[in-house]
Amino acid sequence: MEDSVEVMLLHKSCKLSQHTQEKSLFTAASGALLMGVYGLWTLFALPGFRKVPTSLKVPYLPSSRTQTQNVMKLLHGRAGCLADLGSGDGRLVFAATVEGFQCTGFEINSILIGYARVNAKWKGIPSSTARFINQDFWEMEVLGRKLEKELPDEARVIACRFPFPDWTPTATEGDGLDQAWAYDMNAIRKLSTHTMR
Predict the structure, then answer these.
(1) Can you tell me whether residue 112 is helix, strand or coil?
(2) Which of 156, 49, 44 is nearest to 96 (CA)?
(3) Which pTM value belongs to this model?
(4) How far apart are CA 143 and CA 134, in angstroms?
(5) pLDDT of the chain, 197 residues: tens digit per residue
(6) DSSP string, 115-171
(7) Cβ neighbours of residue 112 closer than 8 Å, sequence gap 6 or more
(8) CA-CA distance, 86 to 88, in Å (whole number)?
(9) If you ran DSSP here, which 8-state letter would residue 84 be given?
(10) pLDDT at 194
(11) Helices (H) and strands (E) in the chain, counts
(12) What is the distance between the alpha carbons of residues 144 and 164, in angstroms, rounded to a whole number?
């Protein structure tokens, strides 16, 4: 009987040491994963956070395929130039070039700009069709007033995820995180002129 108790204790201790080993492996893997996520965040999101005013901090959130499709629906039937403010890795710029737009992507994060430029070369898109500029557009005057003042009447402004609070959209596509709002400058100007009276 003593032998059987000793065998049972020995058997349980083997499972215990195996469980402790698995727990250590899980802890190490979790730590490595968290360090990797933090490293990616410091490379891609943090540079933009340092330069943007606290009240306007927006993380790098790549456009989903649905969101890109919603923007392209709002651009349907239009042609010409497209400026993507906060272009990230350039996926919206690339989608618009396929539709014949001449695009310029503005991005604060130089790593994302480099990635977009390399991707454009890889895809064979000439810089005359798609170019990427490392610029902080938050240094400009309040964006809505600047656009209203400088864009021609036929221009259309499209906002993704963050609508202009003082403008009434002409059209919208999608919902939730994939929603996009279109603002036609002639309609915006009519509304602001009507409001001033």
Answers:
(1) helix
(2) 156
(3) 0.65
(4) 17
(5) 455 545 445 555 555 455 556 667 777 777 777 777 766 666 665 555 455 545 445 566 788 899 999 999 999 999 999 989 889 899 999 999 999 999 999 888 888 899 999 999 999 999 999 999 998 766 665 788 888 889 999 999 998 877 888 899 999 999 988 899 999 999 998 877 666 55
(6) HHHHHHHHHT--TTTEEEEE--GGGSS-HHHHHHHHS-TT-EEEEESS--TT---SE
(7) 44, 60, 87, 88, 89, 90
(8) 6
(9) E
(10) 60
(11) 7, 6
(12) 7
The 8-class DSSP code of residue 19 comes to: H
3-state class (DSSP) for residue 53: coil
- Return the exposure string of 109-148: e unless at least 16 CB atoms fall within 10 Å of the residue's CB, then b: bebbbebbbebbeeeebeeebbbbeeeeebeeeeebeebb
Residue 76 CA to residue 135 CA, distance in Å, equals 28
Give, to the nearest 10 degrees, the angle between helix 110-123 and helix 2-44.
80
Q: Using one digit for the tens of pLDDT, what is the confidence trace for 45-78? A: 555 545 554 544 556 678 889 999 999 999 999 9
Q: How many residues does the chain have?
A: 197
Q: In which residue are the tokens 């929603």 written?
A: 179
Question: Tokens 């730590």 correspond to what residue?
Answer: 31
Burial of 23 (0-12, 13-18, 19+ CB in 10 A): exposed
